[in-house]
Specification:
Length: about 475
């Protein structure tokens, strides 16, 4: 049945998993995108088109937990070329400041084009006349244009969840023009930060040659496209409510006790990704232990690493590297029953995450580059007693809003050590002052506000254009 709102994202909110007994079940998909869009879907009456994970999984549209989902099948070649290849071997590193080296393969690009075409066709099929289609993230940048060709009647929004890089990096892409033109199929292109939107506008002017004025692009066919920042957020009230629940409160106490009731618990929660700076943060912590600044009886670091993209070479190497580092640190500095680092390579449900956040005194989020980082916001949302410290990388989008965190440069190990020490020793008044301000930001700018402002801009985009269209274009 066609819908008035169609969400298109590479992943569905749930991932199909084979259980040990041979049956199949569903698990919440990893990553910030799903966390953010799920509440939007629940509030509206839309349909979500995406990949349910796995190879050659052919399923009919179904309803899960009240959401209408349309699964798209991927073959082994699609997974290799489109998903692991072009999306995560080419685009992901380029869009994250070349933290790893991107690879360019023409077959990967061909697969990216073909899979984007299939997503566009599915969206065209499920949209009512004049419907709104909201396309998400770097895996689907060609969909807006392909979809507009199929269905010029639609209102199309695109949102990029990861950073949009500066021209110097973007220009390395052999297919840079096609990607910019793909995005220009949308009426509104949303980014996390103003910097990403500005990078996009500049590239469109320089590389595609379209006229632009402030945040608008004027296309030769008379259409305009707006590019603007919409910093994403979380369901802050929902997280707080969960954190306040008796079950989570009890579980948080249990976690602290299991860790040996140390004076301070440090926590890191990330997908196991080389952009997240896990290695550098564990090194900073372990040096403090080695120097005797922290004693393992007083300070424990819990690192949760959610398995991710395990078939991609760079991710396998990272996993080995972290395993080795944790083993070495615990071997050198741990005592019986007291590892310096409690390392968990697994994903956990929301309740367990909320309990971990509540059990943690110092949350450490140190990516080299991150679109936003919702973990930082989730931690803040759960600290309803206005306590706890956040150590946050300057290079996470969240740093633009959470100014009261201990902001660090993840490339500067000594700087990170100093911040960890300061957060460890901070007095209650300073913690309260900082956390209260951050909580205000996160509760006021929650995911509902984010989605509402994107949707409002999307429906206003043409009105807006008339109001600001200059007499002479620049
Ligand atoms: C990030 C991306 C999402 C992606 C998620 C998980 O949050 O922005 O698009 O879905 O990571 O990665 P995966 O490759 O498992 O979908």
């Amino acid at each position: 049945m066609p819908h008035d709102l169609v969400i298109v994202a590479n992943r569905l909110p749930v991932d199909r998993v084979e259980q040990p007994d041979g049956t199949t079940g569903w698990r919440t998909s990893p990553g910030g995108l799903v966390t953010a869009i799920e509440p939007v879907m629940r509030a509206g009456d839309g349909v979500w088109i995406g990949w349910p994970g796995g190879v050659d999984v052919a399923l009919e549209p179904f309803t899960h937990d009240g959401m209408d989902l349309v699964p798209l099948t991927m073959s082994a070649e699609d997974v290799e070329g489109f998903y692991e290849g072009f999306s995560n071997g080419t685009l992901w590193p380029i869009y994250h400041d070349l933290v790893a080296k991107p690879e360019f393969h023409r077959e990967w690009w061909d697969s990216y084009v073909a899979v984007n075409q299939r997503f566009a066709e599915a969206a065209a099929e499920h949209a009512n006349p004049g419907a709104t289609v909201w396309v998400h993230d770097y895996q689907l940048q060609l969909v807006p244009r392909l979809l507009r060709t199929l269905r010029p009647d639609l209102r199309i929004g695109f949102y990029l969840h990861i950073p949009f890089p500066p021209g110097e990096l973007f220009q390395q892409l052999p297919w840079r023009r096609e990607i910019l033109e793909g995005l220009l199929g949308a009426d509104l292109v949303g980014f996390q930060l103003a910097g990403g939107a500005a990078n996009f506008i500049r590239l469109v002017r320089q590389r595609v040659g379209h006229k632009t004025h402030r945040d608008l692009v004027y296309l030769p066919d008379g259409r305009t496209v707006r590019a603007a920042p919409f910093p994403i957020s979380i369901d802050a009230a929902g997280f707080e409510e969960l954190a306040r629940s008796p079950a989570v409160t009890a579980r948080a106490a249990e976690i602290r006790e299991a860790l040996g009731s140390p004076r301070r618990v440090f926590l890191g929660v990330d997908r196991l990704d080389y952009t997240k700076g896990i290695h550098a943060r564990l090194r900073a912590f372990s040096e403090l232990v080695a120097e005797g600044r922290f004693d393992v009886e007083d300070a424990v670091f819990v690192q949760v690493a959610v398995p991710s993209r395990e078939q991609v070479e760079q991710y396998r190497l990272l996993r080995d590297e972290i395993d080795r580092l944790v083993g070495r640190i615990n071997g050198d500095h741990g005592r019986i029953g007291r590892p310096a680092i409690s390392y968990l390579h697994s994903s956990y449900p929301r309740e367990e995450m909320a309990a971990l956040y509540r059990a943690a005194d110092i949350m450490v989020v140190t990516p080299y580059r991150d679109g936003m980082n919702l973990v930082a916001k989730e931690y803040v949302a759960t600290r309803f007693e206005d306590d706890g410290a956040l150590v946050l990388s300057e290079f996470a989008g969240a740093a633009e809003e959470l100014r009261q965190a201990w902001l660090v440069n993840p490339y500067d190990i000594n700087g990170m050590k100093a911040a960890l020490l300061e957060a460890y020793a901070a007095d209650e008044r300073s913690l309260t002052r900082r956390m209260r301000a951050m909580r205000r930001t996160v509760t006021q700018h929650d995911v509902k506000a984010w989605a509402a402002s994107f949707m409002t801009e999307l429906s206003d985009v043409h009105t807006h254009e008339k109001a600001v269209r200059p007499a002479r274009r620049s």
